[in-house]
Specification:
It is built from 9 helices and 4 strands. The chain is mainly alpha-helical. α3 packs parallel to α5 and α3 runs antiparallel to α9.
Length: about 160
């Protein structure tokens, strides 16, 4: 029922969409996250610098150049996602969801730093409150504006990665 509501909300209600979600749910959670990131990040080319592959931000000292292969991009994505999940390991099953969100938004947007407070999402999880849907959906802004594509991504992350 929840999947149908989200698909309606996203404007994508049809039998093939529901079948696609059903097939995704058969994958292990980490593979679901990788598939979801690949779908929403798409392929980054030279014009997207400093991003490469599936949204990896090139760091100083990294020896990456355009073009890269699909295999390299997949390997980098998996490595980045594992690192992000490790940062949130103390949240157990929620670490994958948080790692996936931080892949898109950055870890500082969730964890905070000296210039930015910790997110409400993190604060709730720290207190043991797992009622996080609306706080998760707040991570859908781009350049200060609510973005429907990112909102749809957050819904899908919640449906595919949040373990009740």
């Amino acid at each position: 029922m929840m999947i149908s509501v989200v698909l309606f909300f996203c404007g994508a209600v049809n039998a093939s969409s529901q079948q696609h979600l059903h097939n995704l749910m058969k994958l292990p959670p980490f593979e679901r996250a990788v598939t979801l990131i690949k779908y929403y990040e798409q392929w980054h080319t030279r014009k997207d610098y400093p991003y490469i592959g599936y949204g990896h931000r090139i760091q100083s000292g990294e020896n990456l150049s355009y073009p890269i292969t699909e295999h390299q991009a997949d390997s980098i994505l998996r490595s980045d996602l594992r690192k992000n999940c490790a940062l949130f390991r103390k949240y157990g099953a929620d670490s994958l969801l948080l790692g996936c969100v931080s892949y898109n938004c950055g870890c500082v947007s969730l964890l905070g730093d000296k210039n930015k407070p910790q997110s409400r999402l993190q604060t709730k999880l720290d207190t043991g409150n797992r009622n996080i849907l609306y706080d998760l959906l707040d991570f859908c802004h781009y350049k200060g504006k609510r973005h429907p594509y990112i909102l749809r991504r957050r819904w899908m992350e919640y449906l595919l990665l949040f373990e009740k």
